[in-house]
Amino acid sequence: MRNVPIAPDPTPWAFPHHSTWDPDDDLVALGADLDSGTLLTAYGLGLFPMPVTLEGDEQLGWFSPVERGVLPLDGLRVSRSLRRSARDFEIRIDTAFDEVVARCGSPERADGWITPAFTRAYGRLHRLGWAHSVEAWRDGELAGGLYGVSIGGLFAGESMFHRDRDASKVALLGLVDVLRDSDAEHRVLDVQWQTPHLASLGVVRRPRAEYLEQLGQCLDLPLPLAFRVDD
């Protein structure tokens, strides 16, 4: 077992320094690409990509929310009903990464943004050992899950889905369990934006500057044991 994933080729792109970011705008930059080296550089700077349409033209946008959604590992709200429901599921790690991403990117989802280019990009990151899925299985079927990027002490959640009730929440509970290790106090579980649904689970808002400070302190931590990659 190796403790670190495979390093991709470095990105040829230079992202703007955070001191130049608009303090009132979540969108920081446009352009670049979805190569693995670009993605890892961006996450390390506190950025993540999403497609944006400006004046009718779809472009690749790089975001750092002014108010970042973060789930404190000791702040996950687990109701009694969710704890009971969790007993019906089996948590697995990285056994169906491509299927999880495909379900998250289903065209049936009204707010879908995961294009084929994003699917390929995160598939490459997964094969290098940087992107991971946490899956909730029931009766031998994938019932829900989430995926994201793990760099040191950062887990940057990208998207989640459920087929069965509570399945995505159970996957989130499984992720928090994975991150609760000896370095849990310094790990960061980033969910991009706080939504009402995520707020009900304990997600809070962190000012951009505070998030970036936490990020700088966590990137050199060891990966959680569950995300270390087999040779």
TrEMBL record:
Keywords noted in UniProt: Acyltransferase, Cytoplasm, Transferase
Catalysed conversion reaction: N-terminal L-lysyl-[protein] + L-leucyl-tRNA(Leu) = N-terminal L-leucyl-L-lysyl-[protein] + tRNA(Leu) + H(+); L-phenylalanyl-tRNA(Phe) + an N-terminal L-alpha-aminoacyl-[protein] = an N-terminal L-phenylalanyl-L-alpha-aminoacyl-[protein] + tRNA(Phe); N-terminal L-arginyl-[protein] + L-leucyl-tRNA(Leu) = N-terminal L-leucyl-L-arginyl-[protein] + tRNA(Leu) + H(+)
Listed EC numbers: 2.3.2.6
Keyword Transferase among UniProt keywords: yes
Pfam families with a match to the protein in the record: Leu_Phe_trans
GO MF annotation: an example: leucyl-tRNA--protein transferase activity
Predominant subcellular localization, coarse grouping: cytoplasm
CC annotations in GO: cytoplasm
Keyword Cytoplasm carried by entry: yes
GO aspect biological process, one term: protein catabolic process
Localization (cell): Cytoplasm
Function: Functions in the N-end rule pathway of protein degradation where it conjugates Leu, Phe and, less efficiently, Met from aminoacyl-tRNAs to the N-termini of proteins containing an N-terminal arginine or lysine.
Similarity-based family: Belongs to the L/F-transferase family.
NCBIfam families given in the database record: aat
Protein name: Leucyl/phenylalanyl-tRNA--protein transferase
Protein encoded by which gene: aat
